[in-house]
Fold these 2 entries.
Entry 1:
Amino acid sequence: DFMAYIEGNFDGYQHVGFKLKKAYVTVNDWTVGYAPSTFSDPNAQPPTIDGAGPNGRITHTNILVRYMHSFRDRWSVAASFEFPDSHPDITDGQTKKCSDYVPDICAMGQYQWDEGLSHVRLSGLIRVIPYRDLIVGKTRNVVGWGVQLSTMFKVFRPLTVYALAN
């Protein structure tokens, strides 16, 4: 199996340029490129007409290398190295942003039913966030982590439940 995906948009009147939103290639169980994070679960987010998306939405696109395998038509597991763009809190004269040099490690496990239209997913993330402490003159690294439980399932036609817990 092979798939190439590109998504972008033009930013309208003042911002006429093309903005790349996603660009990746999937070959069998491997995905490489600028793709949705393994930590996020886009299918567990309700459809909305709000351009900013639903409240509490956690979705991010990273440059990544992901392995995702499905088996027995019900289970999927994935792990990825993702190259983030951290945004630590910066205080003038005290701290400054540094380049990210350690990739995030993400993993997820998902159980699905109803021919893949319903699922429950547990995902996790470990990240190293570097910043420069200007007072002491040292670069520091803070380790962060996150866990997400998400689901989407049909109760009855047309009622579908979407849920995220972080």
Entry 2:
Amino acid sequence: APEPLDLSAVVTARARADAELLGRSARGDREAFAELYDRFSRPLYATALRITANPTEAEDVVQEVFVTLWEKARAFEDSRGSAFAWAVTLTRNRAIDRVRQRNRRTELLSETTAEDAGTQPAPAGPDSAGALAASEHAGAVRAAVKSLPPEQRRALELAFFDGLTQAEI
């Protein structure tokens, strides 16, 4: 019979490999950075999409995160967490900032009269095609966290996707 898979060993090995790729990227290794992109881009996009609910904004967030990873790879310290956790945190923060900016723009537009702006304000909210794409991608994120116990899944959703603090949860 095959030996059972040691999940913690797999996670540790992957974290080490990610840290090595980020370290090589810090030294200007474009191939290492490309491999890091291949490993991280899908989950980071799914994260950004879940938060922004907008495929275009999610793509922009992921691009910004990878620019940051390239520029600040030297600042990464694996003693503080994994490279993937750092990338996810950057993605989460950028995506939440995007949503806040969008909400603030919508708020400002709603306070502005058509005469003030010289035009009619655009309606807020995603278009139906964008909403459909966001819905499809959100399914991928839900599938990824589905294997967690319900209480862990809910805590993760509240903290990560809704931006709640530990005290608020």
